[in-house]
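User: Before I run my own analysis I want an independent prediction to cross-check against. Here's the chain; please return only the structure tokens and, at the end, one sentence I can use as a sanity check.
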Amino acid sequence: MLVHKVDDEVSLRLFHKDDSEEFYDLTINSKSYLKEWLGWLEYTKSIEDTAQNIQSRCNELVENGGYPQSFAIIYNGEIAGTIGFNEIYKANKIGVVGYWLGEKFQGKGIMSKAFKAVIDYGFNDLKLNRIEVRIAVENKKSRALPERFGFKKEGEIRQAEWLYDHYVDHIIYGLLANEWK
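Assistant: Structure tokens:
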């Protein structure tokens, strides 16, 4: 199993089917916190739903020629969240990063470490030319992450996402391979 040790506390690894219960519990225990910005939470109603999500992540490995597209973020042995490429456009060498962290893992620098590792992976291993992040305009906490790592604010997409009872606009951030240090 692929494991990328970021430091003594944080690592990224592939999801496996045995993660279903732990990942489901993390999602449900953080649901009210995550619901502000993640519109898919209503579709996670059982461990089986989570198992299907993990299986689709495993299938991505085969589709990408052995290169993982998404990872479990492990903090001191526990699944703390997830990060990876929601989309990879191979012809144009573009990846779109998505991420979330469980509520109890916030404020520990975990996501900054995981984000840097995934950006390195995207440019160095996947040979992407461009990495994008799309974030709700009002989600200032999440927007701080790409800004901290030198991503450029490139535009805004109006009504880009439906969140339960309203649309939210997204900011698109982009970073090119030759801009990554």
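Sanity check: The two ends are 28 Å apart (CA to CA).
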